[in-house]
Amino acid sequence: MGITKATPTTPPATLGVLPVKARGRQKxxxxxxxEKRERILQAAEALFDRQGYANTTMEQIVQQLGVTxxxxxxxxxxxQEIFETLCWRPSVACFTAMDFPExxxxxxxTKVAEGMERLIRxxxxxxxxxxxxxxxxxxxxxxxxxxxxxxxSHFYDRMCALMEEARRExxxxxxxxxxxxxxxxxxxxxxxxxxxPDGRLSPAEVVRELSQLAWRVLGLRAQGxxxxxxxxxxxxxxxxxxxxxxxxx
Length: 249
Fold this sequence. Notes:
Layout: H1 31-51, H2 58-65, H3 69-73, H4 79-95, H5 108-125, H6 132-135, H7 142-169, H8 177-189, H9 191-194, H10 203-217
């Protein structure tokens, strides 16, 4: 199952919460106020994507919504808080992609493959906000960057542990664990350079193609096959149409 914008916007309790400033004058969330916050975030996201952070003003966000400034300031202190809120959602969605329930007894290589597919899908589904940190890393406060780094460490710790387990089982073939993980994850990391929602490939096709490339980088292969013959596994109940599925253990 992919991760969508419905994914909770706070990390697991063990990771703490996003150290953001208190929301404007809003004291408590309700269904109505949450919907209004979403409207603000969607309008700001479109402006940040089109104009960049520096060239987008609170006045423009207000005009885009057709409301007054107090309306926006009720929910957000400033433009930076809006920007960080937008970026935190994809950060959580991407960096929890390797989280699986403790009672999930599937082989490690299946989890790694599914986690990579989740990561790529989350990056695309959260376009364009998922690309903002790559395009404008100078915007964030030190507190935000520290929390983002904690999330990333959580992701790579889980991924590397699964990778090493799969290597012991003979279903992944690689040398340096962390380097291989970073190389595989660099594929969705560079999406911001070239990805367009209206491009030649559909979002689903981009997810499939990049997932298969990432699996090759990880040295994914069926048990008993040579290390230079990686094959795509069956993940999330779907087998790749172009490569046969790996053994399930």
